[in-house]
Design brief:
Protein name: Copper resistance protein D domain-containing protein
Radius of gyration: 19 Å
Number of strands: 0
Number of domains: 1
Distance between the termini: 19 Å
Structural class: mainly alpha
Number of helices: 6
Helix content: over 70%
Strand content: under 5%
Largest sheet: none
Organism: Salicibibacter cibarius
Shape: elongated
Keywords: Membrane, Transmembrane, Transmembrane helix
């Protein structure tokens, strides 16, 4: 194994993880609070544009993290056999990280994003908020934040596993 190849894949892995996690955290903790300062109609338009244009980029970054992590653990790393996967601490932690990474990516892609689009598409939430009654919309956005916290928990678990490796 070439040390340069390993370092290059590790660099790509870390870079893609920064994009995936950092981007999603920025949207959740930066964009959403800033958008709340806009009028209701602009909130909806802004969120729709940002989510639709960033979703595929973050999904690809997450998939890249999983692919590079798989290469780092197997082809370029110590998990060269089923024995190493099931009977070593590294193999167990690596496999747990792989599963949690896949579940986190799928959660964000197929649960969180779809729920966000559903909220953005629910006309009565936005109409009632525009007419001065924003409680249903705020409730839906709060529920979305709770739903998306599962993805954040996945990131925390992944980071913990990476430190243990």
């Amino acid at each position: 194994m070439s040390w340069t190849l390993y370092q290059s894949v590790l660099w790509a892995h870390i870079f893609l993880a920064i994009i995936w996690v950092g981007g999603l955290l920025f949207i959740g903790w930066g964009v959403f609070p800033a958008v709340k300062t806009l009028v209701v109609r602009e909130q909806r338009q802004t969120l729709a544009v940002i989510l639709k244009h960033s979703h595929h980029f973050f999904t690809l970054a997450g998939a890249g993290v999983i692919v590079t992590g798989t290469a780092l653990g197997t082809v370029l790393g110590p998990v060269q056999s089923w024995e190493a996967l099931w009977h070593t601490t590294y193999g167990n932690l690596w496999f747990a990280a792989l599963l949690i990474g896949i579940m986190t990516l799928f959660w964000g892609t197929f649960v969180g994003y779809r729920q966000a689009i559903k909220i953005l598409s629910t006309e009565h939430l936005w109409t009632t908020a525009k007419n001065g009654y924003s409680r249903p919309l705020n409730h839906s956005l709060f529920a979305l934040a709770l739903l998306e916290s599962v993805e954040g928990l996945g990131f925390v678990i992944l980071l913990t596993l990476m430190i243990m490796l």
